[in-house]
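S.,

As promised, the adenosine-5'-triphosphate run. Input:
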Amino acid sequence: MTKHNPIALTEGSLPEDRWRLLQLVRETATRGGLPLYIVGGSVRDLVLGRRLNDFDLTVEGDALRLARALASKHGGRVTAHSKFGTAKWFLPQNLITDTQTPNTLDLISARSETYKHPAALPTVKPGSIADDLRRRDFTVNALAIRLDGSHFGELRDDLNGMADLQNGILRVLHPRSFIDDPTRPYRLVRYEARYAFRIAEATLALIPEARPFVAKLSAQRIRHELDLILDESDAVSMLRRLAALDLLAAIHPVLADFNRSKFATLESDDASLQNRDSRWVLWLMHLSDQEIESLHERLHFTASLLKILRSASLLNANLTALLGLKPSQVVEFLEGYSIKALEVVSCAVQDEKIRNILTRYHSEWWRVRPKTTGHDLKKRGIPPGPRYAEILRRLRAAWLDGEVKTAEEEKVLLENLLK
Ligand code: ATP
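Predicted complex:
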C-alpha cells in the first residue's frame, strides 16, 4: 500500500554526484514509464536520519533496458546479469566527481523469490514491487520510496516496516524466513547491535529451529556474513550475542566459546586492529593449528588470511619461549612468522615482558643488518658458499646483541671471523 511519506529524500541526503545521478535515472525511468524505487537499507537509513553514501534502486520492469537507455544518453557501458534481472552501469567519468563514490550503479528488476530447499539460493522470477518487498529479510528493510515522475516521494510500506523502524524493532516477514535463508539470523544480530534495536520475541523464537540449517550454507555465504560483522565497530558485542544464541557453534564447534577469544577480552583499541583481517586474527589466534585448519574447511579463508591465522596461532602457542632470549635469538625465532600476525599478536598479548620483546622486534630488530654485504665478502676473495650466510648472521647477531656498536668494531669482528 502507498502511504504519505514522512521521509525527506533531499539533496543533502546523498553525496553530490550520487544525487545528480539519481536525478538522471529518475528522468529516464519517467520517460520510459518505468516505476522506479529506492529500496531496502537505503530507506531504513534515510528514516534514521543517516546520510547515505549510496543507494539501492529497484525498477518494476526491465532494469537492463533502463540501464541501456541511460548509457546511450549519458555514456559509460552496461553489463547484465540477465538471470537475475540485474544490470550494472559503469559510469562515464563526468558523472563521478567525489573520490569516495563508486564508479558503477546497480539497477535491479523487482522480483519474487522462492526457496526450493533450506539455505539454497532462491529461485528468482520477475515480479512487482510488492513481491520484491516480500522477499526481504526484516520489516525495517522492506520499505521503498517511489522516484519516477509525479510519484516522487510515495512510500511503500506493505509490511509495516515504518512502525517497526520508529519503535526500533527487528522482525522477520514470515516464520520460515530463517530456514529459507540461515544467513538472516547473523544479519539480525548485526542490525540489533548497530542500531540498538530490539528483536521481536516471535522472531527470536524462530532461531533454534533454523540453527541446524546453518550447516547447509556455503562457505562463501557464511564467511561473508562474518566478514560484514568484523567490519562493524561493535563486532565484539555482535559475536558475543551470536555465541549466546548458539549461532557460532552452529558454524563450527571451535567457535562456540567466544569468551576464550582474545577479541572478547582485549582492552586496546589500537588503530592497527580496526580492519577485517586483524579482527579475524584477534578472534581466532587462541585456536590450535589443527582447529584453524578444520575451520578453514568450513569457511574457506583466503590464502593470505589463512597464512596469517596459522602464523598467529603458532606464535601465540609459543610466546613464552621468547622470555630470556638474546635479541639475536628473538630475531631468529620470529623471522619465520608473518609480520601481520606479529603485529596483531603483540597488541593482544597480556604479559608486558613478552609484549615489549615483540614490539622491539617489530619496530627495530627485524631490520638490523651488518654493514658488510655478500659483495664485500666476495671482494675479499672468500669462495661463495654457506660460509657467507654464516658470517653475515654472526655480524648481524653482534649488532643486535650490542657486541658491536660501530662500523669499526664490525670490521674487527669480521677480521676475527675470517682468521
Ligand atoms: P548494510 O547497512 O548492512 O549494508 P543493507 O540493508 O544495505 O545494510 P545489503 O546487504 O546491502 O544491506 O542488502 C540490501 C537489501 O537487500 C537489504 O536492506 C534487504 O532488504 C535485502 N537483503 C539483503 N540480504 C538479504 C537476505 N539474506 N534476505 C533477504 N533480504 C536481504
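The first helix runs from residue 16 to 31. The pocket of adenosine-5'-triphosphate is lined by residues 40-41, 56, 136-137, 141, 181, 183-184 (CB under 6 Å).

- D.
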